[in-house]
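Notes from hallway chat w/ T.B., transcribed later so I don't forget. T.B. wanted the structure written out for a chain they're using in a teaching module, and asked if we could keep both sequence and structure tokens in one place. Agreed to drop them here.
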Amino acid sequence: MKTDIEIAREAKMLPITDVAHTLGIQDDELELYGKYKAKITDDFLKRTADRPNGKLILVTAINPTPAGEGKTTTTVGLGMAMRKMGKNAVIALREPSLGPVFGVKGGAAGGGYAQVVPMDDINLHFTGDFHAITAANNLLSAIIDNHLQQGNELGIDQRRILFARVTDTNDRALRNVTIGLGSKVDGIPRQDHFMITVASEIMAILCLSEDLADLKVRLGNILVAYTYDGKPVYCRDLQAAGAMAVLLKDAIKPNLVQTVENTPALIHGGPFANIAHGCNSVRATKLALKLSDYAITEAGFGADLGAEKFLDIKCRKAGLTPDAVVLVATVRALKYNGGVPKAELAAENLEALKKGSVNLEAHIDNLRKFGLPVVVAINRFGTDTDAELEYIRTVCREKGADFALSEVFAKGGDGGLELAEKVIAACEKEKDFRFMYEDDMSIKEKIEAVATKIYGADGVKFDATAAKALAEIEALDPSYARLPICMAKTQYSLSDDAAKLGRPTGFTLTVREVKLSAGAGFIVVLTGAIMTMPGLPKKPAAYSIDIDNDGNITGLF
């Protein structure tokens, strides 16, 4: 079979203006980035504000293997299948981060015959949104250190600066750094650290902001440090929010591209699903609802991370109510959860599949707790055997869950027709959407609710550092206790231990750190060994990526 980049290169793309016209977007409501990419202006967003909303479909997954299991591919294929059925469907996705593209996972534009294009542009610099976020983030960092250098009028305690610099590449050497070395004019020496751009609070803010005015308020609310006498210092105290908003004025506009079958796709924002909320922008999702009868979006990693945050954070903040959830499951991910090493996932192993299927059952149970209809998409890989696929169907039948085989990777929209029919039917079913916790619960109670109801933990243990930080946050402002929580943990397990596969029981979730993201409007809860700056593997994907003298890229996937 052809590679992803070969398929993408052979796709007959339409000029993005033609794609926009199918959605009723006029030429002067687009800001073109070449022939096949465009941003949609605020004028169009305002013009469509009173349109009725279509159905909202969330695509999520079981716990993945380190290689990823095709959640984006399924999302893209589902949208294309609905278009083939004559339905007005629009896809809303996140933008890929350069870290995974050149690191372990590779690109995030779908795969096979279910991709968004131009694939190489989307996986690389795209329309520059991530660069703008990086610049805005690091402008604030520069202003903080300049404030220290210029006399420190606010009395910032340099040992309690919370805001970190970012870069959108995996660079482990930047996890802990010392800055300000040199002569007196080179700054105040202090310890600092870098995070990857997609873990930045600026990224989460961009994706949760309703408009430019909301963006500026949220930027101003970022808690950046404490003073020597323990008082909070916010971004607005440093007068940085306006300049940061200027850097983000274009980045806040949703991006329009298309699939290999010319289905419209809005790709905007890309927060990580563990340290941030893992969803594309509110603006893009709401625009997709205005443009279509069926808006199909996804949330990062497994349902225990991305879907829970989509439902408890994004839907709560943006006033969204999903109509159905698609749960992507694969034979190989379930075998991985049954104890099969990554290198041996291609071989048939019914015993491991049966052992790992408890992970699928857990996610079905969890999504039903939100009161939403669930359809299991069995994403077929070439190495899957008929016996293995039939066993997953049996598990779904026993759980009373709708299911469909998805072959969109190999067949494009034609391979998703059965899934599309099941999802359309699910959208018409009764739903009783509810959150996993209420606003007026304490922060500890919210953490315990997610840990016990979603992860299956017996309880929660708070390290001394986390307990102190939690008390400090509650003392800052009573309103912070009403914020939702953003749980950061490993994506490979329902627990906080990546080695505990399947459906772990008898464990206690350990919270080691709690951070306030006042601008984004949630509280980050770190468990396990979560890295906010990933490192490169021994053989990063970058080794295989190249470009020839004619400008043709190879090795990008």
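Follow-up for T.B.: The chain has a mean pLDDT of 95. Might be a good example for the class.
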